[in-house]
Design brief:
- With about 575 residues, the chain is an all-beta fold.
- The protein has one domain: Beta Barrel (Maltoporin, Chain A).
- It is about 5% helix and about 55% strand.
- The protein contains three helices and 35 strands.
- The strands form seven sheets. The chain has a 19-stranded antiparallel beta sheet that branches.
- A hairpin with a 5-residue loop joins strand 26 and strand 27.
- The longest helix is centred in the first third of the chain and has 6 residues.
- The two termini are about 30 Å apart.
- The N terminus is likely disordered.
């Protein structure tokens, strides 16, 4: 069933940041080149024909950032949410999820940590030993497919170094906040390098529970560890092995009746995550073609629980109720990717052309156990998704300064859902995304580009609707039947941009204007259906609206006016 999307009026969101920092060297120097690694080819930021923000390790450490949520205010038109101890979901240009309960989730904004997909699991995005955070705005239909309808966030940790080195970090702050971390890197042999790191962060949090007399019910206890090996058997081959783990054992007690930092809950919740992941990457440089393979696996267990009534028994005798809600999820994923890219351009259509082609496969299995006060027994569900994709990109030189880039990704996604209410369904989707970009190099005046890109988000099932007995809602049975599934969503993004390095390399400017057209927009809703006994059923579901539009701009400036002073500003309009 489709409904027109509501339009309450124009929405303008503006963010502005200004950062002053002392230079790390005494000598004057231009702004260092930043390379974006989340593209099909590593590309300097000012040569990339897309709207991207990059937060480097210097900015991360200057802000004493412990989690991704601590640096996202530096990226225009990017937000986060979750109703949890840490930002779990992200929104780019106004598109993205804000919560998850019973239903399986297809994220609109992707999250990758060293190439491993953690979309929808933002709690894992701890920043100790992270070298760079990349935020790609707009659909990444060619690059990353279904989980990047609105954009992609890529975290890249520090790589093994050729020389022995390391760092130790110790800090303390209010609310009994303490941080301890260490990293060590160097060579094991002439061809083998390593890096190990371990970071730990604890805090009592900012909430006080007046009923229990505690100040740590919304605490944080977060640990991340990593081990990397880089093998360089010869000049043409590089093999990277990476194992890492994240352990987040946070409390969750943030619902306040009077919207203060004082709570009255008698059953404080929790927000925990345990993840173990690994990846193996092989890059081979050929004479004409480079080969890259990437294998990854991750096992993630999460627990999200909260005091649903926000208060204690006895706060309002004869008018109160007491309930506790908990969601336990186990997600296992395995992915494989093979990519070929031209090392020497070929002649295509009479033009010099660089190309990339690849195939990708993903297996994603998730189980849920929900424990809720008013359920007769625990609710169980399983969700399995299989994705296979092929993609390619051509970069065609139309002249010395003019380049046409085209990309296409074809994917098939098969899903299987079942639960303890007897639901068993297996929908599937055929999907495609891509882009066309025309870019001109203006030499000292920078780069201008115009692009059209298409992203997609897979459809799915409304488990809550399917699990409801039609006889239990009387005349509402027809409404249930019309909302058992929802279709895939499409997003067309039209963008104009300009990037330049000015003032003898001391000023970097990055400007993008965009208009986004959403087709079959997936929207959350709630069915309110009267039961024959006079009570009411409330059933959350996802539906497809007819359409929706977003428009706005992003502008980022980095300026180094004098030695020892760096300024940064960004603005986002939506």
């Amino acid at each position: 069933m489709k409904h027109p999307a509501t339009r309450p009026g124009p929405l303008i969101v503006v963010s502005l940041a200004l950062v002053l920092a002392s230079a790390t060297t005494a000598a004057a120097a231009p702004i260092e080149e930043i390379v974006v690694t989340a593209e099909l080819r590593e590309t300097p930021l000012l040569e990339q024909s897309a709207s991207t923000s990059v937060v480097d390790r210097t900015a991360i450490r200057q802000r004493a950032a412990r989690h991704l949520e601590d640096v996202l205010n530096l990226a225009p038109n990017v937000n986060f949410a979750g109703g949890s101890s840490r930002a779990r979901f992200y929104q780019v240009r106004g598109i993205g999820e804000r919560s998850q309960f019973v239903e399986p989730l297809n994220p609109s904004v992707g999250l990758r940590i060293d190439g491993v997909d953690f979309s929808g699991l933002g709690t894992a995005a701890l920043l100790f030993d992270v070298e760079q955070v990349e935020v790609l705005r707009g659909p990444q239909g060619t690059l990353h497919g279904a989980n990047a309808l609105a954009g992609l966030i890529n975290l890249r940790t520090a790589a093994p170094a050729a020389e022995t080195g390391g760092r130790v970090e110790v800090s303390a702050a209010e609310y009994d906040t303490r941080t301890l971390g260490a990293a060590l890197t160097g060579p094991l042999t002439d061809t083998l390098r390593y890096r190990v790191s371990l970071g730990h962060n604890v805090s009592d949090g900012y909430m006080d529970n007046a009923w229990l007399g505690r100040d740590d019910t919304n605490d944080r206890d977060e640990t991340s560890g990593s081990a990397k090996l880089r093998w360089l058997p010869d000049a043409r081959n590089t093999v990277d092995l990476h194992l890492f783990a994240v352990d987040v054992d946070n409390g969750y007690d943030a619902f306040s009746l009077d919207n203060t930092r004082t709570t009255l809950s008698d059953q404080p919740g929790r927000d925990t995550l345990e993840a173990v992941a690994g990846s193996l990457q092989w890059h081979r440089e050929g004479d004409a073609v480079d080969l890259e393979t990437f294998l990854s696996a991750a096992d993630t267990d999460t627990a999200y629980a909260y005091d649903e009534d926000w208060a204690y028994v006895g706060i309002a005798p004869e008018l109160e109720y007491s309930s506790f809600d908990e969601y336990l999820r186990d997600r296992d994923s395995v992915s494989a990717e093979l990519r070929l890219s031209s090392r020497q351009p070929l002649t295509l259509f009479g033009r010099s052309t660089d190309w990339v082609a690849g195939v990708y496969g993903l297996r994603d299995d998730e189980t849920l156990r929900r424990r809720y006060t008013y359920l007769d027994s625990d609710f169980h569900s399983r969700f399995e998704a299989r994705t296979a994709a092929a993609y390619g990109q051509l970069d065609i030189a139309l002249g010395e300064t003019l380049t046409l880039s085209t990309g296409l990704r074809l994917a098939h996604r098969a899903m299987d859902y079942g639960d303890s209410n007897g639901v068993d369904t297996s929908p599937s989707d055929d999907l495609w995304g891509g882009k066309v970009v025309l870019a001109r190099d203006l030499a000292a005046a920078g780069l201008v580009y115009a692009s059209v890109s298409r992203g997609y988000r897979a459809g799915g099932v409304n488990a809550g609707v399917l699990a409801t007995d039609p006889d239990s809602v009387g005349d509402g049975a027809a409404v249930l039947a019309a909302n058992t599934t929802f279709d895939q969503e499409l997003l067309w993004n039209y963008e104009l941009g300009h990037k330049a390095l000015l003032a003898d390399g001391r000023l970097s400017s990055r400007l993008a204007l965009f208009w986004m057209d959403r087709r079959d927009q997936q929207v959350r809703g709630s069915l309110v259906l009267p039961r024959p006994d006079g009570s009411t059923a409330f059933i959350d579901y996802t539906d497809n609206a007819a359409s929706g539009t977003n428009l706005g701009l992003e502008w980022e400036l980095d300026w180094r006016p004098t030695d020892g002073l760096a300024l940064f500003a960004s603005i986002g309009l939506l």
